[in-house]
Specification:
Radius of gyration: 30 Å
Number of domains: 3
CATH superfamily of the largest domain: SLC41 divalent cation transporters, integral membrane domain
Number of helices: 23
CATH architecture of the largest domain: Orthogonal Bundle
Helix content: 55-70%
Strand content: 5-15%
Largest sheet: 3 strands, mixed
Strand order of the largest sheet: 1-2-3
Number of strands: 6
Structural class: mainly alpha
Distance between the termini: 77 Å
Length: about 450
């Protein structure tokens, strides 16, 4: 069906009536997906064809880049109408991508209550729980009966982000408890909300980091999370759809940092080449300059290399093995911290485990390497011992650095992803070479 609709859209004359009928039969998410393939010059026209009842919902699911293309071709009145129909958190997401002067003009045409709520969300720090919450939730009172609660939900539920959980608020907006839809349906109609509400609930503060709020969803299996101020006054809720977006953004950012890239919010294929290059060149420069440490170490042992040229052959193997060993450990430690399995206070336990793993791995690799060198390089036991001992030391050092650096970064309130593969590899390279040549000098008495 999607291909048929795209053919209708791409035709010289738009079949407005047929498109409108097709859209009325489709899911809003599927309609939104079509806008990725609609030519830019037709995007706004196609959006205007959408049935009025689903246009705002479709707009909420359209990718930000396509949203901007549509907004640029709509009037401010049309944009304001969309904003008025969106949930607050979706409206904030749309407005955040617009220029400040356009936002101000659009908000002037948004109804006063919604404008006040949008401006309230804008005041919270970008990475805080308050920035991703919505104030559109169902609130109940302790003295209401279950029957009255159902009547209230039927009356306002259509304009709320979710009705699966209701929040019991006192007169001063103090959050007293929560009630699930299941609790309401299983309770007697005459029971008081205060008697069936759950007073032992999980919540986040508006200033909490959004990653911390996201972790609560995973830990407690939540569909929504209440957000309160410092006095536990109810401010809004975070819903699971917003959490999924945060998890995707944070995971992407961590991957980019681990690969020595400056994080970017734009999709790869839609990011200008110059911007991609700018995001990479700084880290490449830092790593290139830091790699001079490796060169200076090699230069300092030119005499040893001149006497025993075979030592050069094993430098790439030692550096690569050390880098890979460090990257393995750092990846697992960073992942463990991200999901809450590892804390900075576990540093000694993690270090002990990684050293044991390093010794086991290096024992197996060392034995294989010893036999290979013995057969390939003239049965030189001195060379075999030198390379094998260096390999063991390199793996132990690499795994120690790979676990301690991310943990230290977390302790210092830095992003552990910054201490990932590229930086660890650079440090391990220099350390492993210094150890290698020191062992060679001792064994060969250079």
């Amino acid at each position: 069906m999607d291909k048929d609709i795209l053919l209708l859209i791409e035709a010289d004359h738009l079949a407005v009536a047929e498109l409108n009928a097709r859209f009325a039969e489709m899911n809003s998410i599927d309609i939104a997906a079509l806008f990725q393939d609609i030519p830019r010059e037709k995007a706004a026209r196609i959006f205007r064809i959408l049935p009025k009842g689903i246009a705002a919902e479709v707009f909420a699911y359209i990718e930000p880049e396509e949203q901007q293309l549509i907004v640029e071709d709509l009037t401010e009145t049309e944009v304001s109408d969309i904003i008025n129909k969106l949930f607050i958190d979706d409206a904030v997401d749309v407005l955040e991508e617009m220029p400040a002067d356009v936002v101000n003009r659009v908000l002037q045409k948004v109804n006063q209550e919604k404008r006040k709520l949008i401006n309230q969300i804008f005041q919270y720090p970008e990475d805080s729980a308050g920035s991703i919450m919505t104030p559109e939730y169902v609130e109940l009172r302790e003295n209401q009966t279950v029957a009255e609660a159902f009547d209230h939900i039927r009356k306002i539920g259509i304009n709320r982000e979710t009705i699966y959980t209701s929040y019991v608020i006192r007169r001063d907006r103090f959050l007293a408890g929560i009630v699930s839809a299941k609790d309401l349906m299983l309770a007697d109609r005459g029971q008081k909300i205060g008697d069936i509400m759950d007073s032992n609930f999980v919540f986040a503060h508006t200033t909490d980091d959004r990653e911390a709020a996201t972790a609560l969803f995973k830990k407690y299996g939540l569909l929504s999370l209440p957000v309160v101020d410092n006095d536990k006054h109810m401010v809004g809720i975070i819903t699971v759809d917003d959490v999924v977006e945060v998890m995707e953004e944070e995971a992407t950012e961590d991957f980019e940092k681990m690969a020595a890239l400056n994080p970017s919010d734009e999709p790869y294929l839609k990011t200008p080449i110059l911007k991609l290059a700018r995001n990479r060149i700084l880290w490449l420069l830092v790593l290139m300059l830091s790699a001079t440490l490796t060169g200076s170490i090699i230069a300092g042992y030119e005499d040893a290399l001149a006497l025993i040229p075979a030592l050069v052959v094993f430098i790439p193997m030692l550096m690569d093995t050390g880098g890979n060993a460090g990257s393995q450990t750092s990846t697992l430690v960073i992942r463990g911290m991200a999901v809450g399995e590892i804390q900075p206070g576990d540093a000694l336990r993690v270090l002990g485990r990684e050293i044991c793993i390093a010794l086991l791995c290096s024992l197996g690799l060392g034995l294989i390497n010893y036999g290979r060198i013995y057969l390939m390089y003239g049965r030189s036991s001195s060379l075999c011992i030198t390379v094998t001992l260096s390999l063991v030391a390199t793996i132990v050092i690499a795994k120690a650095i790979g676990c301690l650096l991310p943990l230290a970064a977390k302790k210092l309130r830095l992003d552990p992803a910054l201490m990932a593969a590229p930086i660890i590899t650079t440090l391990v390279d220099g350390t492993s070479l210094a150890v290698y040549f020191s062992i060679a000098r001792g064994i060969f008495k250079l």
